[in-house]
Amino acid sequence: MQVDQAKVEVIENLPSPISVKGVRSFLGHAGFYRRFINDFSK
Fold this sequence. Notes:
With 42 residues, this protein is an all-alpha fold.
């Protein structure tokens, strides 16, 4: 099982969130990939 590299690049290039709502949104999207990221909880 592999992650689509194009989707990883999109996440890496997202602008930094500037509001609480933006942070929550980013964490929700990034959390989907937590099973593929070593030490995600750190």
